[in-house]
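Quick entry between incubations.
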Amino acid sequence: MTVSTQIRVRYAETDQMGVVYYANYLVWFELGRVEFLRALGFDYSRMETEEQCILPVVEASCRYRAPARYDDQIRIEAFPLLLRGSVLKFGYRILRESGDASTLLAEGETVHVVCDPSMQRRTLPESVTEKIRSAVAEHAATNK
Amino acid sequence: MTVSTQIRVRYAETDQMGVVYYANYLVWFELGRVEFLRALGFDYSRMETEEQCILPVVEASCRYRAPARYDDQIRIEAFPLLLRGSVLKFGYRILRESGDASTLLAEGETVHVVCDPSMQRRTLPESVTEKIRSAVAEHAATNK
Amino acid sequence: MTVSTQIRVRYAETDQMGVVYYANYLVWFELGRVEFLRALGFDYSRMETEEQCILPVVEASCRYRAPARYDDQIRIEAFPLLLRGSVLKFGYRILRESGDASTLLAEGETVHVVCDPSMQRRTLPESVTEKIRSAVAEHAATNK
Amino acid sequence: MTVSTQIRVRYAETDQMGVVYYANYLVWFELGRVEFLRALGFDYSRMETEEQCILPVVEASCRYRAPARYDDQIRIEAFPLLLRGSVLKFGYRILRESGDASTLLAEGETVHVVCDPSMQRRTLPESVTEKIRSAVAEHAATNK
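Done. Structure below.
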């Protein structure tokens, strides 16, 4: 299961090279991650407040293929790659949409450790765990 | 009393026009404001946690005179303009330093309402109040 | 004529007070401004490259009424307030949408000087001028 | 050769979890990279304009060890790991300074391809190349 989110590049996201500043892709990854969880039925803002469950990032990486430019229509694809105990890994693809064509701009991953608000490791609520496990299996099967 | 803070323009702060994106001046105002409080002996991070005192912004304005560019050496001047009850107003000047010359790039103000963490109005701790009052009076006297 | 743009608050836009950092409202103003121009038929990215016409900000102000929070559904309203020679002024309203209710979170204005890429004053292309003039008149009439 | 840069965490860099938002570490990496080049005698803003030499990022990664918090005194260490043809790789360490103690908060790398302004691969100016080669050798020798 892959969830797509559409955004437009903001002027504030560009730099003087005329392209999107490289750190902003990690902001986009987060947007994709949140929409992925929402598509599973989980509201990250409620997970933080009601389930006492936060997802701090312990690792992030990005490979930049082609630059995104101001006002580009961007598609963010997010999908879970692994869930083992408290460790949750997401993958991302950033694409430029232009008419029917889409161009891969960047790919990346983030690794999270599921924590309670005092930053102690915990596991995800059972209902989330099951759905993410299925999504991981599905992603692995379709990308063999 | 005016407190000066020195920074260098970051690449991330520029936009594709080749100048600093306009919202970033408000970030710089905040840096100046924090250093002003520190110069008075108050650590804003401790004011939040120990004094239960936060300074949400209710108004901000900026006049842009000349663009700041990547790697420019910037001086942020911050000074208090008014303290009346829970209302605190700061003024700012943003200057580019280049050898002996300095060029005014922007000027602005922010208005704050002193609040406790539940966002109820309160007054500043007495010790802060006195020092800010003197600084307001001094600024008014030197800028008549 | 008022143009509305919908966004969701990003995690990156919050600060440790648990609300949207105050400078980000100026980023949102810009999103509204760009969508306003697009609704008139003008693509700001093309105005920069094809029409040699940029809109640097010379003044910006914002009054903050209520805080925006993570994941809030935000509506940005943008409308032109004045066009006189090279000077163009926009107004903005930022609202939180929640079911049928909408809450005013912030209001503001930006003033721009129409410039060519070498930062010399110029006027807007004639076609843009006419449409903005009508929008200014319409806004003034409906907000008397 | 490792170059250290000191900054203080800005309020704008925190998020509602009360720690620095993860994308901002890539901004800090860039500050370290620029100061490293400056220490070698190269001004990145001049490299772009006078030497027609830009350093777009093709890969970035970060491992987060401990959170940075508002107002923390941060030391950014930057050092070159590799220079082969047009490919330049930097390493970074982000530390919190507190009195005599320093705590490792994050580590990372960025990979760059040296380009001219039309994004064609080129090599660094000869003078830069030599100095970076020495720095790479020295770093490798001291970190065996």
